[in-house]
Description:
This protein is an alpha/beta fold and 287 residues long. The protein has 2 domains: 6-93, no CATH class; 103-272, Alpha-Beta Barrel (TIM Barrel). Helix content is 48%, strand content 10%. The protein has helices at residues 6-13, 20-28, 34-41, 71-102, 118-130, 139-145, 155-159, 164-174, 188-205, 220-233, 249-257, 269-272; strands at residues 48-51, 65-68, 107-109, 135-136, 179-182, 211-215, 240-243, 264-267. It comes from Oenococcus alcoholitolerans.
Amino acid sequence: xxxxxxxxxxxxxxxxxxxxxxxxxxxxxxxxxxxxxxxxxxxxxxxxxxxxxxxxxxxxxxxxxxxxxxxxxxxxxxxxxxxxxxxxxxxxxxxxxxxxxxxxxxxxxxxxxxxxxxxxxxxxxxxxxxxxxxxxxxxxxxxxxxxxxxxxxxxxxxxxxxxxxxxxxxxxxxxxxxxxxxxxxxxxxxxxxxxxxxxxxxxxxxxxxxxxxxxxxxxxxxxxxxxxxxxxxxxxxxxxxxxxxxxxxxxxxxxxxxxxxxxxxxxxxxxxxxxxxxxxxxxxxxx
Length: 287
């Protein structure tokens, strides 16, 4: 697996404490002695921690993180440590499998809408980049962790305009140096691509060259091959083709083995949930 999660662990341990409300709640359970509650009131983290660097490959039976100190503190940390390291290492590992399959082609992390909660989306974005993704569509995560933000237009953008061509033209007006147009809302080859080419023609005459299309449905191999041929014939060999839609490492391998002319991948749900292996079974051992 690929190790991830250490940053969050350190941030939380630096702030380890029990506030007044925490202590009152524990007291209300009538399960704990006042001596124990007093201990928690004045707790100071007194353990040493050793850990492998994030992004490091870890093999079975190898320790990812070691806590040395009072048993009572180590046990207080157990669930949090396992949750954090298991979750983020799981996503980093899945991201590595996906980016390895993609080769040198960039993989954008697109998973925020499918993550298991807001926090999982944010920290999952970071873990995905540790695993090899080039960027994230989660702008909050990009800001928080200083990682590249990337993405293309949404279907909702196109549906908000009276026509697909109007949506494309407005996007190119607002983002002339990032004109990646989503061409599958209605019909990739008979509507989206012809409308995109008209916009690319205007952009190229303005000296702009950072443009392309995204395909989010259908037979990605056949559509990307036909789109590449049409774009080249129209005089736009620089136009990039991005694909998305429930991708994982197996689908990406299949697409590339079929010689699909794809330049970028956007990977969402199967990455951010590690759909093929949604649980990482890291455990804790006491010595």
